[in-house]
Design a protein that fits this description.
By secondary structure, the chain is an all-alpha fold. The protein has one domain. It has 8 helices and no strands. Helix 2 crosses helix 8. 36% of the residues are buried.
């Protein structure tokens, strides 16, 4: 039952994020959606750092690891630097503070409470997330349609956020992110509610 509740707690935010990004992808001008074009791209980029840090935490701070606190703090500072740069570049300051809270939670939980099973589960989640992430990047760049994200509409929404495929064609990032978070939420419900790791 506890595993189901954990999977549900992870699935609900992912599915809510997928729903929001799906709506932004369909109509980027509605309501607060113009801010969400920039924020959605930043969140999707940040998700890679969340996945990456999950693998590092699971392998570096596992039950048999004797990792010094300085290494943990250095690793947190390394990821925080990336989070701050992404938040600054996309003008989404709340993103950096959210990441700080995630890293504090992971560091405290990893050092005080995580069991061998928890570390295996974190690693499985991170590997699953990585596979889905790469698959959705491929989908976004190759086959996902623009839907409501016409270039002339969304390009001004990301001016000043840098360059690259996701800035030049924001639908590739928003569409990929919507699909990714939906698949991640479904994986939580379909796989992590019952799998024994």
């Amino acid at each position: 039952m506890l595993q189901f509740l954990g999977a549900l707690a992870a699935a609900v935010p992912a599915l809510l994020m997928a729903h929001k990004l799906w709506r932004v992808w369909g109509d980027p001008q509605a309501g607060d959606h113009p801010d969400w074009v920039r924020s959605g791209i930043a969140i999707f980029i940040m998700e890679f750092i969340v996945i990456h840090s999950g693998v590092f935490f699971a392998t570096t701070f596992g039950p048999r690891a004797e990792t010094p606190v300085t290494v943990m703090l250095g690793l947190c500072a390394f990821y925080l630097l990336f989070a701050a740069v992404i938040g600054f570049a996309f003008k989404v300051p709340g993103l950096t503070s959210s990441f700080i809270m995630l890293m504090i939670g992971r560091a405290v939980f990893a050092s005080l409470f995580m069991t061998a099973h928890d570390f295996k589960l974190l690693k499985a989640h991170s590997v699953t997330g990585f596979i889905l992430y790469m698959f959705c990047i491929f989908l976004g760049l190759m086959v996902l349609p623009k839907r409501g994200m016409k270039t002339e509409i969304v390009r001004p929404m990301v001016v000043g956020c840098g360059t690259g495929a996701w800035i030049e064609q924001p639908h590739t990032a928003i569409g990929a992110a919507a699909v990714y978070f939906a698949l991640l939420g479904l994986a939580e419900l379909a796989v992590f509610t019952w799998i024994k790791i």
